[in-house]
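User: Fold this; tokens only.

Assistant: Input:
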Amino acid sequence: MRILVIGAGAIGGYVGGLLARAGHDVTFGVRGKALAAIARDGIELLGPRGNWRIPQVKAIDAASFANAPLAPFDLALSCVKLYDAETAAHQWRAALASAGAVVSLQNGIDGAERVARGAPGARVFGGLAYIAGRLEAPGVVRYLSDMSSITFGGPGAARHPLLMAFAESLNATAGADALQACLVEDIRSAQWAKFTVLATNAALTCLTRQPAGGVYRDPDLLALAQASVAEVMAVGAAEGAVFSATQPHDTLAILQGFPPELYASMHHDLVAGRPLELDGISGLVSRLGRRHGIATPFHSMAYACLKPYLNGSKA
């Protein structure tokens, strides 16, 4: 398949690199240092399952695409930060509108809606990535665990020929560099299930400035993690998400199973002085809690404490 990957951070670089290794024709929609680095050297993935350099990718910026558009892409993946999803979609709106399908892989819950606002007419599906990594340099991603899968879909997705073919192509791969796929109709419940992990880890590693090993082995911090999970589940259920009966246990098992040195991606942005996805994480839980009359003391506190860094400044 011809695939456009917008953004080449930890998620975009990892997913796009493995898609290229699996034989897909991948073009990265990027700019600046990332554009130059990927055009020159491709993508490099470093981590516990192996190190791979993937030179067989292309890179282009939105202005160049607008001036000399390529043939339509079969699939586009939006992998920019949540706060950039709408702006990036607007910049790439011609490519997204002509693609067979667009999948949002943003953190949080409302990435697909943001992409759709930026690219009216595009067929946008929600998604999420189970990947732990960080961007070490433009075009260089260090992945930190065995997690290597994406889940995507929405109403009608399980019968969408292109999405079905894409999922089947990924699940036919095997080995250390495999990227697995799960195509679902109820993407919102899947997103909320992951959000119990993401929102908890983002808030706690940012507030404490400690990695997973320092957070989830401390009984007092573990109690805060449990409170966070309960708040996210209560708000998610009010929004229509369906959780398994074992969700609280499963979430804590994932958090406690993280590599001890792992931080949330929002923590990396915090210490680097970059803008935070806070508004779409703890901010979202707090806002939706107020809308539904649900108390969210932990996430309201996390949002208030981290809000001074929302638009980026050195921690």
